[in-house]
Structures are given as C-alpha cells and as structure tokens.
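Researcher: Can you fold this with beta-D-glucopyranose in place?
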Amino acid sequence: MKAITVEPKIPGTARYMEMPEPDVRDGSVLVEAVAVGVCGTDVEIVEGKYGWAPPGQQYLILGHESLGRVIDPGPAGGLKKGDLVVGIVRRPDPVPCPNCAVGEWDMCRNGLYTERGIKEIHGFMSQRWRIEPEYAVKVDSALGILGVLLEPTTVVTKALEQIGMIGRRSFWEPRVVLVTGAGPIGLLAALSLKIHGIEEIHVLDRMESGSKPDLVRELGAIYHSGSVANLGFEPDAIVECTGVGQVISDCIQKVGPNGIVCLTGVGHGGVVTSAPTANVAAAAVLRNTVIVGSVNANKRHWYRAGQTLAKADKSWLAKLITRVERPENFMKALERQPDDIKVVIQFSDI
Ligand code: BGC
C-alpha cells in the first residue's frame, strides 16, 4: 500500500511511497482511508522540526486528523463493515503515569505517551490503517467527509472544558469570549462557544476579507481584523489560536478581571520586547488572570466533540474545508495558501 511518510527531523524527506500493509498488532480493526486533514503540526514534521518514527524504524507515516471506512471490524463488537471511523491520536504512556492510568492521556505527566502520525506510532496518511477498537470513534455517516473535522474539534473541546473548569474557581458566568485566529481551530472554537450558548463571541484574525469574516458572521459572532490591544472591550475569556508572541502578550493584558487566556497555538520565537514579562505578570496578578496551555484530548472530549459536530450546521462546516488534494499532490496540501482554512488529502471516495 502507499503512504505519505517522513524521516523525522530530516527536512525534505516527505514522500508518497510503498509501505508494508498495516500490522495486525496495530489493532484488530482494518480501515480504508477516506481523508486526512493537514495541520500546522504536519507542516512542522515535514520541515524536520518535530516528530518521531516508531522505535527502530526509519519512517513515520504522517497524519493524525483521520477519517476512514471500516473494511474489517475484527472480532470485537460495536463496529461493522462500512462504518465511518476516526482514530484517537494519543495513546497512554506504558508506565502509566497517574493521569494516563485514569484515561486522561492528554494530561500525561511523564512525556512517554505516543501519538499517531506524530510521536512513535504511524499515522493515518496511508491507503489502509489499523486501529484498536477502543480507539476508533464511530462518526455519523450523515457527516460524510466532514467527519475529518472531528480531531480538531476535540482539541477545541478540551480547551473550552479547561476554561470552564478554571472559571468555576469563583463565580463564573462568561458572557464575552474572544477567539484569536480564524483558522480551523479558531473557527471550531467559535462554533463550540456558540453551541455552548455564549452570548457575545468575537473572532480576531489578520485577514481583512475573504471567507473567514463571512464564516464568523454566519455564526452570529463579531469579526475583527485589527490588534487585540485596540479592542474596545475586555473579554471574560480568550481562546488564543495563533501562537504569535505579540497576540499572546496583548491577550494577557486585555482579558477582563478574573479572566482566562487559553493558549492552543504552538508558535516559535517571537520575543516581545514591548511587553516585559514582569509587567505582563503584574497585570495577571492584579486581575487574577489564568494563562493556561491546552493540548490534545481524551475520550470525554472526543465524545463531546462528536456532539458538537452533530449540532453544527453542515453547510457552514463544509465551508471550512477549502481545498481537497489527492495523496500524490501531498506537497501542495502542505503549502499554505492565503485562503486556506482546512486542507484535506482525500484517499478514497466517500
Ligand atoms: C494534535 C494533538 C497533539 C499535538 C502535539 C496537535 O496538532 O492535534 O493531538 O497532541 O499536536 O503533538
């Protein structure tokens, strides 16, 4: 079978090449790939900045935003041939740490977790893949290719759960929430906030026109294209999805009293000299600000993310997939174009 692979940490090694059929030890459920979403993490892996091959192997099969069709459900019950499934990304560490022991692998404490398509286990950018039945999430067939949006929705679901849990340290009735960045994570965050019933949702991005402002407005949210510092209101919480230093520093200073800034974007460099750490920290101290990072998702978030997608307007969700590429053209899929929101590599027809 063919798969999109990299030799991790070596830039320029990505290729669509022949790989052995998936090993039965990878799981008793055999799946035919339908589509795989591309995200910033995949780009980083291809650039040689991130990613780990399975122990003793040269190649890592890329891809963690999956959607596939069951070819053989194996002996376990629950799935049948033809079901659409998405694979959970992270596996608990083998020790296991206290968090992995209770299924909260997204909060792994010893860093020995593994992640499909990212860290030490093959991903889903192959014509066929296998999965353990307990890590295969069945998606409603009515979603069709939109099921590929489940994984990014889980990341957002966890971030919003963190905000809610932290908020309840005191009286918490969030009314105004800001999302920075109108990429897939930012837009799915705005959608989830809307489904949670947040009254005033603001989304800020550097794009001044194009589909992002329209998508935000279609949700009934308010779009901004300036800087966070110039916004004329103080949000109760901010979901930061850009990873850009200046935006993060502005968010910490802009969030309202007792506010929460949840960081979901992974950026690099970007020393912000105009906002010395001590001043940012003083602003946080004097207003009880919480700055929290959020990564990955556990089964609870996968379940809730499925509920979010089921409640969403399908025609709105469909506009998030702005480009579909064939696996042979995977390099085109990895190159960002200005109007891209979610780019998907399609392996077979839905
Ligand atoms: C994935 C997460 C993963 C994280 C760090 C993200 O792109 O969506 O599942 O935990 O990268 O590797």
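Model: Folded with beta-D-glucopyranose in place. Residues 39, 41, 64, 89-90, 115, 118, 155, 295-296 surround beta-D-glucopyranose (CB under 6 Å).
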